[in-house]
Amino acid sequence: MKAYVYGPDGAQISDVAQPKPKGTQVLVRVRACGLNRADTGMRKGHAHGAAGGAGTVLGMEWAGEVAELGPDAKGVKVGDRIMGSGGAAFAEYTLADHGRLFRAPSNMNFEEAATLPVALATMHNAVVTVGGIQPGQAVLIQGASSGVGLMAMQIARLKGAKLVIGSSTDAYRRSRLKEYGADLAVDSSDPKWVDEVLKATNGEGVDLIVDQVSGKVASQNLAATKVKGRIVNVGRLGGTHADFNFDLHAARRIDYVGVTFRTRTIEEVREIFDEVRKDIWGAVESRKLQLPIDKVYAFADIDKAFAHMEANKHLGKIVVTL
């Protein structure tokens, strides 16, 4: 089968053996894939958790059809339309754990379905399970113009947030955030953004920050969070190391929690997918929760898709079809 593989000469489409499902695995005939920021690093040979390096089939998000079941796989049957996340997505066939997938709603095509699994699982966990958002609270999403950021704002709005603030350093994308749930859009590269947040919250700060940026905004986040508020760190777009005001953290008594899928067990991931199904799946099926597709590429043009992502001018998801 054809797959996008990182090798000695970089990432390229290659012929590899079709995988065989074992245990609780499902073999998926992939029809479309969503690109994610982590894919850009793995495409250059960087590890993502335990995955990466020479011989790695890249990609982590897909939609397609069940082609074959492992002996212990349950909940789906051959021919079902599904979407999910996991490794080796950029291929004609991939393997998925039976608990790490969703049924693709009948009112979505494969391109649309491929935009959702990572964003839904990541941001329901960050905003609801870990972030504990409650009706009437104020939330700030750092890095809101990414696919997962747009989903985070929509989930916050769905769960009754009274004030949703999104950040983006790009003026055009910032101007579009209100379409996806933001009441206020701020530029996190402008030091005055904290003042804007405080003004919007009567000087108190937000109840919750979901931070995909970290780095240079880490201490600014503390100043923008209310006393006994919460910060959930889900990313490092702004860098992995920075100054951190420990005194301000203590003074404001902020709960600061880091989350990632890289160190989660399959049992933990299954639980996250279960929570999405139980809590917000009706909003997915009704298309209340959805993501814009910026551009669709054929699999043969996957390098062009990555060039488009690395140009950092897109809003929403970039999709590759097979």
Q: What is the mean predicted local confidence, pLDDT?
A: 94
Q: What overall form do the CA principal axes indicate?
A: globular
Euclidean distance between termini CA atoms: 11 Å
Total E-strand runs: 16
Low-confidence stretches: none
Main β sheet profile? 7 strands, mixed
Q: How do the SSEs run, as a string of H and E?
A: EEEHEEEEEHHEHEHEHEHEHEHEHE
Q: Provide a count of the helices.
A: 10
Strand content: 25-35%
Rg estimate, integer Å: 20 Å
- Residues in helices, as a percent range: 25-40%
Structural class: alpha/beta
Can you give a write-up of this model?
With 322 residues, the protein is of the alpha/beta class. It is built from ten helices and 16 strands. The chain has helices at 37-42, 110-113, 117-130, 147-158, 171-176, 193-200, 218-224, 246-251, 266-285, 302-310; strands spanning 2-7, 10-15, 25-34, 56-57, 61-69, 81-85, 93-97, 101-103, 138-142, 163-167, 184-186, 206-211, 225-233, 255-258, 293-298, 317-321. The strands form three sheets. Strands 3, 5, 6, 7, 8, 15 and 16 form a seven-stranded mixed beta sheet that branches. Strands 11-10-9-12-13-14 form a six-stranded parallel beta sheet, sandwiched between helices. The chain has a three-stranded antiparallel beta sheet with strand order 2-1-4, with no helix packed on it. The mean pLDDT is 94.
